[in-house]
Design a protein that fits this description.
The complex is a heterotrimer of chains A (218), B (245) and C (221).
Chain A (H helix, E strand, L loop, with lengths): L2 E11 L2 E12 L3 E5 L6 H9 L6 E6 L2 E2 L4 H7 E4 L11 H11 L5 H4 L3 H12 L15 H14 L4 E5 L7 H16 L3 E5 L10 E4 L8
Parallel strand pairs in A: 3-8, 3-9, 6-7, 7-8
Antiparallel strand pairs in A: 1-2, 1-4, 4-5
Helix pairs in contact in A: 3-5, 3-6, 5-6
Chain B lengths: L8 H30 L15 H28 L2 H33 L7 H20 L5 H33 L14 H45 L5
Chain C lengths: L1 H17 L2 H20 L3 H22 L3 H8 L2 H6 L5 H30 L7 H25 L6 H28 L5 H30 L1
Helix pairs in contact in C: 1-6, 2-3, 2-6, 3-6, 3-7, 3-8, 6-7, 6-9, 7-8, 7-9, 8-9
The chains are: A alpha/beta (218), B mainly alpha (245), C mainly alpha (221).
């Protein structure tokens, strides 16, 4: 059983201590919701989990091995969605997704099949209801459509751990439903999800961390 | 609680004790150096009293390189061990080093006028000094180019190390270029064939400049520490909305 | 290696779709060189005398101008942090981006150089060493410049700052690049200069992606 944990994390950003003494633990199929007011460090915690930044103290570990020891292995098992949706305006939706999926195709049997990547992208787009946009260049997409393309990216190449920073932004009702379905299915397959959100739209049975509790006492 | 800008109290206490001694030593060494240099050393039989510029020029050039080396070491320590004082030391060193480099260039130019008949000659040493000045300026500009000082410190540390690796390559290439374009007509500045009566003031000035560097660095680090405290207070004020100053 | 090829393919694809960039670099190169006859007069011997230096300096500036975009667009739209989170070492990613920078700026400069050498009245025996020296020197410029381009990510004044950081580091390449051409025109062998240029390139190949990756890492932190 894989487990993903953080112990006694201290995060220092932009000249201040964002949170201190924070712990979390996730096992297969678990979901964790990060709540808290602006500036309480939801994004910062997700970036620590992704390995984009290092905690000032404490450790983030996967199966008791620090993620900093083998960043490439961590990158392979993890998908991250940040604030921006990296969709290149001059490439079509399929071309955009092709690139990100091909980078991860080596480790996946299904993607390694002839045309495996193409099929995976097609079905990911269909699940998010944007199959019709496959050949549209990125520059014609709305904010919500770009977000859906970004979500299709993580559906196309399977990975155990999803780190989603405000994934609900800009999505309409239909897209929110397909996102919830995708998360539920991911968890049924043993995947883990960490979501930051101030909206209520989060899995009901998820654990929650209120980052407001871990502020530095002034 | 562990805090990155925790008061380096021990350092401040140490600095407060050491600083007056270093200041006294600096004044003593530089006065002695100037006395021996200006009054108690022979004038050069070719250059006359002009040679006395050497007592400022040569130690400045030493210090320019010494400071860049210290800068690179401090940046290495800051990047590897993340020691907050190393960041402050690096930031404090750069303007001092740039000042010495500038002084070396100005005195070199002053010395060059009577010797070569021109304020500026593309002599290999002076040219290398000029490039070094650009390296210092680049470091300082990058250090100041970010809203988050920690970000500026890290970026400029990497730059200082890259620059440090490049200094010998630049020095070598400038020497190469210089010998191609100016076949050995340039008078050597300093050099090993120097009389003992000239060596005394030169060494005194060299050591005096080093203690001066330590003195100013201490002042600048103490200033940075205070500055960080003020920033911390302002941040707290922004967070709580009440003034604590 | 697969990751390297994927990133090169994608960046080349982007460069071709966005077009213009390479052409602009070459256009700047040509215009910068063409300014010199206006500055120093059209006397053929004078031009021939300064030709290697002028062509090299202009090549160096053109290569530098396009550096700012090396990581900037990917940084702004979030692609860069995503690239750092792929199962590809960041050093490889930086190397791939440097390769594309050279293919889209260095290579066109080398192709345009003989034309400018004709305009500047460069003696005919200088052509071959100019091309060889540019072929060895421009990749080194792209490699060194990548460190600067990564260091300025997110800074307040990108472009001008970049030139201050990078130009001093370009001096050795400039000196040996020009010296190689001058040597052959003066009737000597350019072998030592070209060997040193190769040495700089060989040293830069592993070191610059490594330092560049470190700079990118703290840029997206």
């Amino acid at each position: 059983m894989p487990h993903f944990t953080g112990t006694d994390l201290v995060c220092f950003r932009g000249e201040r201590t964002v949170f201190t003494g924070l712990d979390f633990a996730l096992g297969a199929g678990d979901a964790l919701v990060l709540r808290g007011p602006n500036g309480s460090g939801k994004s910062s915690l997700l970036r620590l989990m992704a390995g984009l930044s290092r905690p000032l103290a404490g450790a983030v570990t996967w199966d008791d091995e620090s993620i900093a020891d083998n960043p490439e292995a961590h990158n392979l098992r993890m998908h991250y969605i940040g604030h921006a949706d990296p969709v290149k305006p001059v490439l079509t939706v399929t071309e955009n997704l092709d690139f990100w999926t091909l980078l991860r195709s080596k480790a996946n049997d299904e993607l390694r099949q002839p045309n495996g990547v193409g099929e995976a992208i097609k079905s990911a787009l269909a699940r998010l209801g944007i199959g019709h946009l496959a050949d549209v260049p990125g520059r014609f997409l709305s904010a919500g459509q770009k977000r859906r393309v970004n979500l299709a990216r993580i559906l196309a190449a399977p990975a155990t751990l999803w780190l989603l920073d405000e994934p609900h932004t800009a999505l309409d009702q239909a897209a929110l439903r397909s996102l919830d379905d995708a998360i539920a299915e991911h968890r049924r397959g043993g995947g883990m999800v960490v979501i930051s959100s101030h909206a209520q739209a989060a899995p009901e049975d998820a654990d929650a961390i209120d980052l407001g509790q871990f502020q530095e006492r002034l | 609680m562990f805090h990155r800008f925790a008061n380096p109290t021990r350092f401040l206490r140490f600095a407060a004790v050491v600083q007056p001694w270093i200041a006294g030593l600096t004044v003593l060494l530089i006065s002695a150096g100037l006395y021996f240099g200006l009054f108690d050393s022979p004038a050069d039989y070719q250059q006359g009293a002009t040679v006395r510029i050497m007592y400022v020029h040569v130690p400045s050039a030493w210090m320019a390189l010494f400071c860049y080396t210290s800068l690179a070491i401090a940046c290495g320590v800051a990047l590897i061990w993340k020691h907050p004082l190393a960041d402050l030391a690096a930031k404090a060193t750069a303007p001092i080093g740039a000042g010495f480099t500038f002084l070396a260039l100005v005195t070199g130019s002053l010395w060059g006028k009577p010797m070569w008949g021109a304020w500026w000659v593309w002599d290999a040493r002076l040219t290398s000094m000029l490039v070094l000045l650009f390296l210092y300026l680049g470091y300082m500009a990058l250090n100041n180019a970010f809203d988050d000082p920690a970000r500026g410190a890290k970026s400029s540390s990497i730059l200082a190390l890259v620059g440090f690796v490049n200094v010998p390559i630049i020095k070598f290439s400038v020497n190469w270029w210089n010998t191609l374009h100016q076949p050995a007509s340039v008078v050597k500045m300093g050099g090993p064939s120097i009389h003992a009566s000239m060596l005394t003031p030169l060494l005194l000035m060299g050591v005096g400049f080093t203690t001066y560097y330590l003195w100013v660095m201490l002042i600048r680090i103490r200033y940075e520490v205070t500055n960080n405290k003020i920033r911390a207070l302002q941040r707290r004020q922004a967070a709580t909305g009440e003034s604590q100053i | 290696m697969r990751g390297f090829i994927q990133i090169v393919r994608r960046d080349l694809h982007l460069a071709l779709r966005q077009g213009m960039d390479s052409l602009m670099v070459v256009a700047f190169f040509v215009i910068a060189v063409v300014l010199f006859p206006f500055g120093v007069g059209p006397e053929p011997n004078t031009l021939a005398r300064i030709a290697p230096g002028v062509i090299w300096v202009a090549a160096l500036l053109s290569s530098m101008l396009s550096l700012e975009r090396l990581f900037q667009t990917d940084f702004e739209d979030g692609s860069l942090e995503l690239l750092a989170l792929q199962p590809v070492a960041l050093e490889i990613t930086v190397m791939a981006k440097v390769s594309v920078h050279w293919l889209t700026t260095g290579l066109p400069l080398i192709i345009a150089a003989p034309l400018l050498a004709v305009l500047m009245n460069l003696p005919i025996e200088g052509f071959v060493p100019l091309i060889i020296a540019l072929s060895l020197g421009t990749p080194a410029l792209s490699l060194i410049g990548a460190i600067g381009a990564a260091l300025i990510l997110g800074s307040r004044r990108g472009g001008i700052l970049l030139s201050l950081l990078v130009l001093p580091l370009y001096i050795p390449v400039l000196i040996f690049g020009v010296s190689a051409v001058d040597a052959v025109i003066g009737g000597f062998s350019a072998k030592p200069q070209l060997l040193i240029l190769s040495g700089i390139l060989v040293a830069a190949l592993p070191l610059c992606p490594w330092a560049g990756a470190a700079a990118v890492r703290q840029g997206i932190e």
